Amino acid sequence: MTSLFDVTDNDDILALQPRLTDDDPGVRRIALIELADLEEPDGLLWLIDRLAEDPIADVRAEAARLLEAWEDEPVVEALCQALTDPSPAVQAAAAQSLSLLKSEAAGRVILPWTGHADSGVRIATFRALRELRCPDAATAAAAALDDESASVRREAVGVLGWLKQLDALPALARLASADPDTEVRRAATGALGLASDAQVLPALRQALRDAAWQVREEAATTLGKVGHLDAGPALIDALGDDYWQVRLRATRSLGRLRYGPALDALIDTLGHRISNLRKEAALALGELNDPRAIAALQAAQDDGDPEVRKAVRIALSQLQ
């Protein structure tokens, strides 16, 4: 039987042979770490072999972790295969290594796995694809918006958001409004910010009335990113939300939009009991660039919170 060591003449790798084949899994694991430290391409064969064949899950998981720095096609394929390992620890290590990949070429190897029968594999592969900006992933991600798994749908939304797929906006708007899972609605709401198109405003206004405050918070943030003044009235209404997190994001977005009609509401927020809200209100008033805010800001110069006082100074410097 041919040994993996028959394919190398690297003395450093050959010197590790006794420990790489030791009966003690702890010894094998440490030897794999030393092998990876060599950063020799010949060592990949052994790392891939141990990921697939070692009888001990801890050793397989270590091999998966050690392969994170390699983007060769056989490595990426081996990590995808490891997502089906019977050990959750190995699956998690493989998923983590896949998520650290950076090359679009790696994305093409991962892509076929997005259709795997196991939802955990689909989740991991879409998560890995998200930051690779692989254009070919758009079709698979769009199809996965109807996946039975909420986690898969959430990861697919992330892929489409990173790819800035404008043709996915109607489907994302549907999820933002109607998906039964809070985190999917929140992710879809955030992804709508990939466009400055007014067509997303109805969905974002609806999300600003969502039953879950996390979705409302995301909607308030995204309305500021989209940049349409038509969002102003809904954001002013959001200043009365039951959750301060939503009010804070609405305040920030009103400043970002420089929405003049929000002046009085922002001045009222400048007196809120929560200091983070007072700080954001001060900054937003500065961005409005309306001299009518000067008196209220001057009155807030002695605020008990130093961060609020700093925000007030910044705002006044913009107005004077």
TrEMBL record:
Query: Which Pfam families has this protein been placed in?
Result: HEAT, HEAT_2
Q: Which PANTHER family match?
A: DEOXYHYPUSINE HYDROXYLASE, PBS LYASE HEAT-LIKE PROTEIN
- Gene3D superfamilies xrefs: Leucine-rich Repeat Variant
Which keywords are on file for this protein?
Repeat
Q: What is this protein called?
A: PBS lyase
InterPro entries recorded:
ARM-like, ARM-type_fold, HEAT, HEAT_type_2, PBS_lyase_HEAT
Q: Can you name the source organism?
A: Pseudomonas fluorescens
* Entry-linked SMART domains: EZ_HEAT
An example Gene Ontology molecular-function term: oxidoreductase activity
Query: What job does this protein perform?
Result: Catalyzes the hydroxylation of the N(6)-(4-aminobutyl)-L-lysine intermediate produced by deoxyhypusine synthase/DHPS on a critical lysine of the eukaryotic translation initiation factor 5A/eIF-5A. This is the second step of the post-translational modification of that lysine into an unusual amino acid residue named hypusine. Hypusination is unique to mature eIF-5A factor and is essential for its function.
State the SUPFAM superfamilies in the record.
ARM repeat
